[in-house]
């Protein structure tokens, strides 16, 4: 019980959320005077940037997820709790869990991330699952594979075509990567395995309300990305918002398209941290924080990662990217260390943009860093190496590298498992 | 549509079940005059002998499961359907699916396997999940990991102890392998990751009504296995049947033991093939077949694998092992080939026993083949190599070998993911 924060005079830090921000903060905050309690509603830290590859049968779940406890097994002052936060009592300085103890804190860090959002159309969710958790990924994987299975059995050509129409909403990195991988699955991996349908005839629609794909990139690169998508067979629909999602169709502007599978890669909404704090939130649900990432009026509470709205000098908010979350985690670790050691406060948080990367399928990628731009096969290799580098631990690096190498050489996605609820059951 | 069996004059073979028996039959039956339809309620073939390693966080699901279509991608005359069989019309010679077409056959092969059984106490199932499918494995994995998580949060020592008590019912290979692996997880992998509980204090009970563990082995080897289990900390309880299973306890004989996690590795029950056929079934639900594995009175229907009761010359039934299922599949392929070619009928099926293997945890195994007996570390390596050899495809062999090597060297199980239903949800 040595590190039970309720029993030691150490500075008690409660971190909610074991995403990139929370994990980075704890990695950087090694200090003899602190005890840290990390709370997450899941038992694993997830490498979100590759989640789309689980959804599209490229990787196995365990290749991009690690037990949170495992990350801090060598840090006796860090305890991990699997629990759901339901509120924060700022006067008593405690965090309430739905079950289990309420956790007292001296410093509270909220890094609870974001969830996909439907712009107020939550009724679309059952028909258009988003992609934020491992369950989301296996749900999408299951529905996608079942669509091909059902099409193979379907006598009615109209229904068959609907089953073979896949609509991806939102042409940010996730949408682009999903569309490209599904197209390759349908064109390269599946054709020899079906007898009645031609999976190459599957329609993969990438729908974007804005004027171009990957708006975070410069125009030439997003033009290249669109061309690369169209080359692998993705139908790119720009400039019209999705106006309705249903079990059998999707509506773009005023056109209905028969479609049995929709994937939502559009908006995100921050987690309910703002409600817990009774704090102001912007339209995306993010809590506005001060330049040192503390909550307005309460310097013992930090909000970081996708949950926070951090202003940049130019007025733009810091983007919701993994590197940004990690930088905020590392920054808060420094702020806390300075406070513990009575050193002068550190300079305001400054976001260093590390560039944008995106892949289109199995061979092409685009990279942009300031004025440096790169596209094509070499960019794909750099993308791959960078992601392997950022994975945690030798085991995962080898496993992912092996899976990719295998697919690169054989063209065969192998994690094509239909599991859990909707399947046929024994 | 070339190989759609409803459209060609070829000999139409319908195979129900893509386990070892059904898959082996199709592998061995390559003949220009046949068209084969393979029906399974799942989209994947499962390497059952290693399923317990998914349940105990050693392997990832995709390492021991392969898309069925993928196995026969190069066999245009084989079509795969994902569907649930609900009946067989022996007069019309059709197989009924719950949804989708009814399938006409000239020859029908039922290889639908078995499910764990509760000796008529089906009300135990919710508290004592069995281990036959990937979902079973992830359910057990989730519940086991959640038990540790909840124990870490539990203030009441009595409940904590119950959460840390794991009961495995049945000391056959599956029960022994589960108990050994869970014990090692609790003793070697988890201790440094928990702060409030000592996972080494977890109780792992292996409960067997019979007089010894692994009864299929000779006495000396089962004595060795029991000693090895006790060395890794498993409590072996012999000679008393389980008389009740509940959410908070298990009853052995007339003793109640507080326990929040039970795993059922005792009886099996054959799938409902007998009902479909209106045929005689033994107590285990198996269909009695003739020496050529056809159904009594209907030579166009074969029943093989765990679904069939095949008499050996000595009167014993052929055991429900993977090699036995494969041999039956290969045998039926030969019978059908002989029929198609008008050659004389083949000799009755003869089961060649290929010996028994079992592992106890991460270092020890036992092997028995006739009078040849082997135990300990070397046996473990042989066991491992044998299983890697029997896996399908280079990718899986590498992946499993890597996972094992990693665990062998580091002692860290890494597929420790709590996913799906019972977890905390967003």
UniProtKB/TrEMBL annotation, chains A, B:
Pfam families: Pyr_redox_2. Keywords: FAD, Flavoprotein, Membrane, NAD, Oxidoreductase, Transmembrane, Transmembrane helix. The chain crosses the membrane at residues 372-392. Signal peptide: none annotated. It is an enzyme of class 1 (oxidoreductase). It catalyses: a quinone + NADH + H(+) = a quinol + NAD(+). Its EC number is 1.6.5.9. It comes from the Bacteria. Gene3D superfamilies: 3.50.50.100. The keyword Ubl conjugation does not apply. The keyword Translocase does not apply. Residues 12-329 form the FAD/NAD(P)-binding domain. InterPro entries: FAD/NAD-bd_sf, FAD/NAD-binding_dom, NDH-2. Belongs to the NADH dehydrogenase family. This is NADH:ubiquinone reductase (non-electrogenic).
